[in-house]
Each structure stands twice: as structure tokens, then as C-alpha cells.
Amino acid sequence: MANSSRAGAALATVAALGMGALAWGTLVERNAFTIRRETLPLLAPGARPLTLLHLSDIHMAPWQRAKQDWIRSLAIFEPDLIINTGDNLGHQDGLVGLEYALEPFRNVPGVYVHGSNDYVGPEAKNPFSYLTGPSKSTRRTKPSLDTAALEAFFDGLGWLGLNNTARAMSIKGARLEFMGVNDPHAGFDRLDKLPGALDELRENVGWLEERNGPEVVSIALAHAPYRRVLNSLVTNGADVIFSGHTHGGQVCVPGYGALVTNCDVPRDQVRGLSLWHHALRAAYLNVSAGLGTSIYAPVRFACKPEAVLVTLTGDDFSYSG
Q: Which sequence ranges form a coiled-coil region, renumbered to this chain (predicted)?
């Protein structure tokens, strides 16, 4: 009888802890927005620093005013460049909230690529199904989102689309070359187009012909950090790659980390800054844990939502990380 009572008490304790963790992850942590800061010595010696704001996986729904206001508050950092790695919408009516959140960044230079949740909305499913492996995009059966309106808004902000193409801009004297792919998780990427796009860009810009100008920094964007995509971006000369998609694992175990990555990136690179090596080259890889979740799985545990402030400095700056 005593053993039965102890077992019952233990089960009750475990259940209480589980309910407490679920309540924390649902009510508190998923709205505990944080800023992660990184420094990358990629500019020429003596160059003026550039502040990059990396936003990803916003998954905006119209009622998420706290998230909207928090994103607006990031304008206080006066970023020189916005990097948006997709999955902006979490509801068919999410664009209005997204427009409100990002309006303070109008006329701030920016670049973006899409995730699947810039094309199709979320669908109700078992919130723990992600533990069985990467989710699958089922475009035909999900509600459609107004991708054209989203792109028109980004264009109005002054941002450049990088879906399977390359662009360039100069900011504070720094020469920045960008390449990007459409969502690899949905199979929309066209890695075969990048070499030609880069060749055409370099021919038109003409920076490589100027011997006395600063070196060009190559920045790559891909929503989902699949290995084949990262390898291709490194082969094409990326100095730094920005990705999202993983939500940092979303539900993590303290002391262990992410349980899953929702792609094939190594688990220890599911979030944060690291190096990605391929063949004889390497690039910095910054994977954002993102700012949102699916409205059908509104929980985070040991994995706070984040925006990332990345400072590019001259390569005479001492970096440790």
C-alpha cells in the first residue's frame, strides 16, 4: 500500500511538472522575446561597422500585438541592413500585423527570401509530430497566403528579393554582394541558377575590375539550412550565411539542447553562430531561432524567440566566439 502511494505521488509530481512546463512554454517563454548579438570581422580594415538585424520565422497572426510592438521597438538600434529569412506569416490575415511591425524599417535597406509560410498558411496537426522528423510541405491542401501582397510590401520598404537570384548594394562604403534561394524545405530552391546570377551581377556591377576598392563581402540567405544548400552557398563564395526555419528546436532540453532540427543541419548548429565547412572553404552560419511558432503549436521551452543583431567590423577587429 505504501509503495502504491509513493508511486502515485511520484506520478502526480511528474504530471504537475509537465503541466507547469507546458504552461511556461505556452504562456511565458514563447513571448519572452530576446536579442542575440554577434560580431563578424568581414569588412576591410578600418571600415565603419555595419549593424545587421536578422529577422526570421515571425509567423505573424493578427492578434499578436505584443510581438508586433516588440519588433517595432528594434528600430531603436538603427540597423544599417535588415535580413529577413522567411516564414513571415502565420495566418491568412497576418499581413496587416506584419506591416505594422515592420513599418519603422521603411527605407532601411533590406534583403529577403521566402519560407513556405510566405506561400501557404499553417494547418492543424499534432503539435508533437515534429519529433518524428522534418515536416513536409503540402502546398495544395493548405490555405493560400497573399504572397504577391507580401512582396509588394517588402518592395515598398525598399528591400530586395533574393529568391534564387543575386543582388548587390553599397552601405557606408562597404560593398555587399547577396545571393539567396527560395525555400529549400518546400523544394523551391534552384541552386543551379546561382552561378549564372552571380556572374551576371558581377559583370554588371563591375566591382571586381576596380583594384583599389574595398573587398566585396558575400552574404547568403536560405530559409532552411539544409546541408546541400549550405554547401552550394559556400562553393559560390559566401562569407556568411543567414538561415532560420529550425525555431532553434523550439522545444529543447536544458543541458542537452534541441531534440530536432526540422531539416538535416547538425543538432549543435540548430541555433546561433557557427562555421560551416565544405571542401576547402568555410563560411559563418547564423541560424536564428526565430520570433514565432505555428498558431497550432504555440509553445517554446528552453528556446526563447529571438532577433539577432550582427555587427560587421573590419578584419583588424579581434573576434572571439
A: none
Supply the DSSP symbol for 164.
T
* pLDDT given at position 140: 46
Helix pair 147-157, 95-102: axis angle to 10 deg: 10
- Measured CA to CA, the distance from residue 119 to residue 139 in angstroms comes to 8
Give the separation between CA 19 and CA 111, rounded to whole angstroms.
41
CA distance 313 to 316: 8
Give the cell for residue 222.
536560405
Question: Could you tell me how far CA 75 lies from the centroid of its own chain?
Answer: 18
Fold of the domain spanning 32-314: Purple Acid Phosphatase; chain A, domain 2 (3.60.21)
Give whole-number Cα distances, 285 to 51, 221, 274, 282, 320, in Å. Answer: 17, 10, 5, 9, 15
Sorted by sequence, the CB contacts under 8 Å of residue 74 that are 6+ apart come out as 35, 53, 104, 307
Give the per-residue pLDDT at 137. Answer: 56
Instruction: Report pLDDT for 212.
Output: 67
Residue 30: count of CB within 10 angstroms of its CB = 22
Segments in the chain below pLDDT 70: 1-28, 126-143, 208-209, 211-212, 316-321
CA dihedral 309, 39, 155, 209 (to 10 degrees): 170
Query: What pLDDT, on a 0 to 100 scale, did the predictor assign at position 128?
Result: 58
Exposed / middle / buried, residue 156 (Cβ in 10 Å: 0-12, 13-18, 19+): exposed
Cell numbers that stand for 16 in this block: 504537475
Specify the pLDDT at position 315: 78
Domain-wise residue ranges, the chain: 32-314
Cα–Cα distance between 174 and 312 in angstroms, integer? 10
Query: E-assigned strands of 68-204?
Result: 81-84, 110-112, 159-161, 165-171, 174-181
Dihedral (CA of 264, 268, 270, 274) sign: negative
Is the CB of residue 288 less than 8 Å from the CB of residue 56?
A: yes
Residue 110 bridge partners (DSSP): 82, 159
